[in-house]
Write a structure and sequence with these properties.
- By secondary structure, the chain is of the alpha+beta class.
- The protein is 34% helix and 19% strand.
- The chain folds into 2 domains: 41 residues, Arc Repressor Mutant, subunit A (Orthogonal Bundle); 81 residues, Lrp/AsnC effector binding domain/regulation of amino acid metabolism (RAM) domain (Alpha-Beta Plaits, 2-Layer Sandwich), CATH 3.30.70.920.
- A 4-stranded antiparallel beta sheet has the order 2-3-1-4.
- The longest helix is centred in the first third of the chain and has 13 residues.
- The protein starts with 6 loop residues before the first helix and ends in a 13-residue tail after the last strand.
Length: 154
């Protein structure tokens, strides 16, 4: 069942995506609601999993992970067994931030972080090359991040 999202909910979601640590009172003021009405709406959005979680966004460079690599994976087949085995294994690779099943020339696209190219080579040997069902891989290194956001349009 899809949750009805009105304009007030959209303002709440936009404000929380910009600054998730604001107090309930600050949020209520930002969206022009009473604190109790705002709190009820946030609780409803959380209960219906529109708001999935609250997280801290870390600076990868400051943690020594300055290299982002996009890895296209081609599998040996498309059976449920092959897809399931790959998905379970790739979810355990610590440097993989995202994994997307694709329609097109590649089967999956991974977003991987590493310290540098040498570290990525280690990750490739230790983890990626050992993933089940992989027939081929192509890696593209990000030269520069033009922009990056986690905020969805509201």
């Amino acid at each position: 069942m899809e949750t009805e999202i009105d304009e007030t909910d959209r303002r709440i979601l936009a404000a929380l995506q910009r600054r998730g640590r604001m107090t309930s009172a600050e949020l209520a003021e930002a969206v022009n609601l009473s604190p109790s009405a705002c709190h009820r709406r946030v609780q409803r959005l959380e209960k219906n999993s529109v708001i999935r979680d609250y997280v801290a966004l870390l600076d990868a460079r400051k943690l020594g992970l300055a290299t982002t690599v996009f890895v296209e994976i081609k599998l040996a087949g498309q059976t449920d067994d092959i897809l399931d085995a790959f998905e379970k294994a790739v979810a355990r690779v610590p440097a993989v931030l995202e994994c997307h099943l694709l329609g097109g020339a590649a089967d999956y696209l991974l977003k991987v972080v590493a310290e540098d190219t040498e570290d990525f080579a280690r990750l490739h040997r230790q983890y990626l090359a050992r993933l089940p069902g992989v027939q081929g891989m192509q890696s593209s290194f990000a030269l520069r991040t033009v922009f990056k956001t986690t905020a969805l349009p509201t």
